[in-house]
Design a protein that fits this description.
This protein has 274 residues and is an alpha/beta fold. It contains 10 helices and 7 strands. It has a 7-stranded parallel β-sheet with strand order 3-2-1-4-5-6-7, with helices on both faces.
């Protein structure tokens, strides 16, 4: 019997958790830039009984992503796409963050829109950081970041002089939400849906790196003040992804779901009224 196909791009903590949730009974395509990391994840998931294919991909390269999309579509009905690949401010300089976190999402949205199966869905992992910088961009800049072709994205004036990794990360994650909104029409033309998730502080190796970095004390304070008063887990994000990828969310597309334990709500409640 032919199986539907699920693609997970980025096989870190969140990617693995999502793969476990959506891989059962489907052909599972894992994609990552790091071949060693990819092979290790595939070995674990195959050992758990999943039908796994691997593809090395550079999400900032349209040719590489196009080849991944074609390979996945050739395996069967492509019904699930989860894009989790990204770099944090403690992992890379601003230029690399813009290439992976900003351009990479735009390329994935463009290249997978033509191959998603009718009734299929995709989800992009953004970040609560995209909700925490009001006024970071003008309305015109947001429109450009949402709609210009991926090939022109890094040449936008809004990105001139962005050399701080934290600024680059917040800008990229805000743009992720905007581009998902804008991409809903193209995905819908195929009968597919696309949404984003904005995680809070999640207990993955990347999240722990952030907590140990310069902003760690501030981040922990926000978590402690939040309604849930805890770090998130990869399974928290996977549960949200499963919902958005499933037919039970068939009337939801072009939207962003904050999965942050209430951190952004806490911040907004502390901002004085103007």
């Amino acid at each position: 019997m032919d199986k539907d196909v699920a693609v997970v791009i980025g096989v870190g903590g969140m990617g693995l958790a999502i793969a476990r949730r959506i891989g059962s009974g489907r052909r599972l395509v894992l994609a990552d830039f790091n071949a060693d990391t990819l092979d290790a994840a595939a070995t674990v998931l195959r050992g758990e009984g999943h039908d796994v294919t691997t593809e090395v991909v550079d999400v900032s390269d349209a040719v590489s992503v196009r080849a991944l999309a074609a390979a996945a579509a050739a395996l069967g009905r492509l019904t699930h796409v989860a894009h989790t690949a990204g770099l944090s401010p403690t992992q890379a300089p601003a230029d690399r963050i813009l290439h992976v976190d900003l351009l990479g999402v735009a390329v994935v949205l463009e290249e997978f829109a033509p191959v998603i199966a009718p009734g299929g869905a995709g989800v992009v992992i953004a970040s609560m950081a995209g909700h925490m910088a009001p006024g970071l961009l003008t309305a015109d800049q947001e429109k450009q970041l949402a709609t210009v072709p991926a090939a022109e994205l890094l040449a936008l004036a809004a990105l001139d002089g962005v050399d701080n990794p934290g600024h680059a990360y917040s800008l990229a994650k805000r743009a992720n939400v905007l581009r998902v909104q804008a991409a809903a029409g193209a995905w819908g033309a195929r009968g597919g849906r696309i949404n984003s998730i904005s995680p809070g502080v999640i207990s993955t190796p990347m999240g722990q790196q952030e907590l140990e970095g310069e902003s760690g004390t501030h981040m922990r304070a926000l978590v402690d003040m939040s309604p849930t008063k805890r770090l998130g887990t990869p399974d928290d994000i996977a549960a949200a992804a499963v919902f958005l990828l499933d037919s039970q969310s068939a009337f939801i597309t072009g939207t962003d779901l904050l999965v942050d334990g209430g951190v952004v709500a806490t911040i907004r409640s502390l901002v004085p009224a103007s």
